Amino acid sequence: LCCFWSTACASAAARLHGGWRIGAISGRCDARLGAGDPAAALETYALAVKVKRPWPMTRRAVLAYRQAGDELAADTLLARHVGGEPNLPSALFALAERQAEQGEWGRAALLLDHAMALGGAHDPALLTLRLRAARALDDAGDVRRFAAMLAEVRPLLLTRP
After folding, report:
1. What is the DSSP annotation of the chain?
2. Angle between helices 55-67 and 89-101 (to 10 degrees)
3. Which of 5, 89, 106, 113 is 20 to 30 A from 34, alpha carbon to alpha carbon?
4. How many CB atoms lie within 10 A of CB 55?
Protein backbone atom coordinates (compact mmCIF):
# COMPACT_ATOMS: atom_id res chain seq x y z
CA LEU A 1 0.00 0.00 0.00
CA CYS A 2 2.84 2.39 0.83
CA CYS A 3 4.33 2.05 -2.65
CA PHE A 4 0.90 2.48 -4.23
CA TRP A 5 0.27 5.77 -2.45
CA SER A 6 3.76 7.03 -3.17
CA THR A 7 3.28 6.32 -6.86
CA ALA A 8 -0.19 7.86 -6.80
CA CYS A 9 1.08 10.95 -4.98
CA ALA A 10 4.01 11.35 -7.36
CA SER A 11 1.67 11.03 -10.32
CA ALA A 12 -0.76 13.56 -8.86
CA ALA A 13 2.06 15.96 -8.02
CA ALA A 14 3.42 15.74 -11.54
CA ARG A 15 0.04 16.48 -13.14
CA LEU A 16 -1.62 18.88 -10.72
CA HIS A 17 -0.38 22.02 -9.02
CA GLY A 18 -3.29 23.34 -6.94
CA GLY A 19 -3.48 23.97 -3.21
CA TRP A 20 -6.35 21.53 -2.68
CA ARG A 21 -4.33 18.80 -4.37
CA ILE A 22 -1.42 19.39 -2.03
CA GLY A 23 -3.93 19.33 0.80
CA ALA A 24 -5.06 15.88 -0.26
CA ILE A 25 -1.50 14.63 -0.46
CA SER A 26 -0.61 16.18 2.88
CA GLY A 27 -3.71 14.54 4.37
CA ARG A 28 -2.24 11.17 3.46
CA CYS A 29 1.02 12.25 5.05
CA ASP A 30 -0.80 13.26 8.22
CA ALA A 31 -2.65 9.94 8.34
CA ARG A 32 0.63 8.05 8.12
CA LEU A 33 2.18 10.22 10.80
CA GLY A 34 -0.86 9.76 13.03
CA ALA A 35 -0.66 5.99 12.52
CA GLY A 36 2.85 6.04 13.96
CA ASP A 37 4.71 5.60 10.68
CA PRO A 38 6.93 8.69 10.38
CA ALA A 39 9.09 7.09 7.68
CA ALA A 40 6.10 6.61 5.36
CA ALA A 41 4.86 10.11 6.19
CA LEU A 42 8.25 11.59 5.29
CA GLU A 43 8.27 9.69 2.01
CA THR A 44 4.93 11.21 1.06
CA TYR A 45 5.87 14.70 2.34
CA ALA A 46 8.92 14.53 0.07
CA LEU A 47 6.68 13.97 -2.93
CA ALA A 48 4.30 16.75 -1.98
CA VAL A 49 7.00 19.38 -1.48
CA LYS A 50 8.16 18.88 -5.04
CA VAL A 51 5.04 20.83 -5.97
CA LYS A 52 4.78 23.25 -3.08
CA ARG A 53 6.33 23.70 0.37
CA PRO A 54 3.92 25.68 2.52
CA TRP A 55 4.75 26.33 6.18
CA PRO A 56 2.07 23.95 7.57
CA MET A 57 3.53 21.06 5.58
CA THR A 58 7.07 21.91 6.66
CA ARG A 59 5.93 22.06 10.28
CA ARG A 60 4.42 18.56 10.00
CA ALA A 61 7.52 17.20 8.25
CA VAL A 62 9.68 18.61 11.07
CA LEU A 63 7.45 16.78 13.56
CA ALA A 64 7.76 13.56 11.54
CA TYR A 65 11.55 13.83 11.51
CA ARG A 66 11.57 14.38 15.28
CA GLN A 67 9.28 11.37 15.80
CA ALA A 68 11.61 9.32 13.61
CA GLY A 69 14.52 10.40 15.83
CA ASP A 70 16.26 12.50 13.19
CA GLU A 71 16.77 15.82 14.99
CA LEU A 72 19.40 16.98 12.52
CA ALA A 73 17.06 16.57 9.54
CA ALA A 74 14.27 18.34 11.46
CA ASP A 75 16.54 21.25 12.36
CA THR A 76 17.91 21.47 8.82
CA LEU A 77 14.45 21.52 7.26
CA LEU A 78 13.28 24.18 9.72
CA ALA A 79 16.32 26.38 9.06
CA ARG A 80 15.96 25.98 5.29
CA HIS A 81 12.31 26.93 5.44
CA VAL A 82 13.12 30.09 7.39
CA GLY A 83 15.90 30.85 4.91
CA GLY A 84 13.48 30.51 2.00
CA GLU A 85 10.60 32.29 3.70
CA PRO A 86 12.25 34.71 6.15
CA ASN A 87 9.20 36.88 6.74
CA LEU A 88 6.93 34.31 8.38
CA PRO A 89 6.73 35.02 12.14
CA SER A 90 5.51 31.54 13.11
CA ALA A 91 8.42 29.85 11.31
CA LEU A 92 10.87 32.30 12.86
CA PHE A 93 9.39 31.56 16.28
CA ALA A 94 9.69 27.79 15.75
CA LEU A 95 13.35 28.13 14.81
CA ALA A 96 13.96 30.50 17.74
CA GLU A 97 12.43 27.94 20.11
CA ARG A 98 14.84 25.32 18.80
CA GLN A 99 17.79 27.69 19.12
CA ALA A 100 16.75 28.44 22.71
CA GLU A 101 16.54 24.71 23.51
CA GLN A 102 20.14 24.42 22.33
CA GLY A 103 21.27 27.40 24.42
CA GLU A 104 21.83 29.61 21.36
CA TRP A 105 20.20 32.64 22.99
CA GLY A 106 21.81 35.25 20.75
CA ARG A 107 20.47 33.57 17.62
CA ALA A 108 17.09 33.06 19.23
CA ALA A 109 16.94 36.76 20.13
CA LEU A 110 17.73 37.81 16.54
CA LEU A 111 15.02 35.53 15.14
CA LEU A 112 12.49 36.75 17.69
CA ASP A 113 13.34 40.41 17.06
CA HIS A 114 12.74 39.85 13.35
CA ALA A 115 9.43 38.07 14.06
CA MET A 116 8.36 41.00 16.26
CA ALA A 117 9.23 43.48 13.52
CA LEU A 118 6.93 41.50 11.23
CA GLY A 119 3.97 41.84 13.57
CA GLY A 120 4.63 39.20 16.21
CA ALA A 121 5.12 41.72 19.01
CA HIS A 122 1.63 41.02 20.36
CA ASP A 123 2.17 37.29 20.80
CA PRO A 124 2.59 36.41 24.50
CA ALA A 125 4.51 33.19 23.71
CA LEU A 126 6.95 35.07 21.49
CA LEU A 127 7.44 37.81 24.08
CA THR A 128 7.90 35.25 26.86
CA LEU A 129 10.68 33.54 24.90
CA ARG A 130 12.26 36.90 24.05
CA LEU A 131 12.21 37.82 27.75
CA ARG A 132 13.94 34.51 28.56
CA ALA A 133 16.55 35.31 25.90
CA ALA A 134 17.15 38.75 27.39
CA ARG A 135 17.65 37.17 30.82
CA ALA A 136 19.99 34.51 29.41
CA LEU A 137 21.99 37.22 27.63
CA ASP A 138 22.06 39.27 30.87
CA ASP A 139 20.66 42.35 29.14
CA ALA A 140 18.89 44.33 31.86
CA GLY A 141 17.49 46.91 29.45
CA ASP A 142 15.90 44.23 27.26
CA VAL A 143 14.60 42.40 30.34
CA ARG A 144 12.73 45.56 31.43
CA ARG A 145 11.52 46.31 27.90
CA PHE A 146 10.20 42.82 27.14
CA ALA A 147 8.70 42.39 30.60
CA ALA A 148 6.76 45.62 30.04
CA MET A 149 5.66 44.54 26.56
CA LEU A 150 4.56 41.18 27.89
CA ALA A 151 2.59 42.82 30.68
CA GLU A 152 0.73 44.89 28.08
CA VAL A 153 -0.32 41.94 25.92
CA ARG A 154 -0.90 39.26 28.53
CA PRO A 155 -4.65 38.86 28.94
CA LEU A 156 -6.11 39.91 32.26
CA LEU A 157 -8.31 37.62 34.28
CA LEU A 158 -11.94 38.09 33.29
CA THR A 159 -13.23 37.36 36.78
CA ARG A 160 -11.82 38.01 40.20
CA PRO A 161 -11.57 35.20 42.73
Report:
1. -HHHHHHHHHHHHHH---HHHHHHHHHHHHHHHHTT-HHHHHHHHHHHTTT---HHHHHHHHHHHHHTT-HHHHHHHHHHHHHHSTT-HHHHHHHHHHHHHTT-HHHHHHHHHHHHHTTGGG-HHHHHHHHHHHHHTT-HHHHHHHHHHHHHHSPPPSS--
2. 20
3. 89
4. 14
Cα four-point dihedral sign 80, 81, 87, 91: negative
Contacts of residue 13, Cβ cutoff 8 Å, sequence gap at least 6: 21, 25, 47, 48, 50, 51
Determine the Cα–Cα distance for residues 127 and 109; give it in Å rounded to an integer.
10
Angle separating helix axes 38-48 and 19-34, nearest 10 degrees: 170
- Entry field: residues in the chain: 161
pLDDT one-digit tens code per residue, 113-122: 999 999 999 9
Mean of all residue pLDDT scores within the chain:
81
The C-alpha torsion from 104 through 109 and 112 to 117, rounded to 10°, is -150
User: Which has more pLDDT, 132 or 60?
Assistant: 132
Q: Among residues of the chain, what percentage have pLDDT more than 70?
A: 71
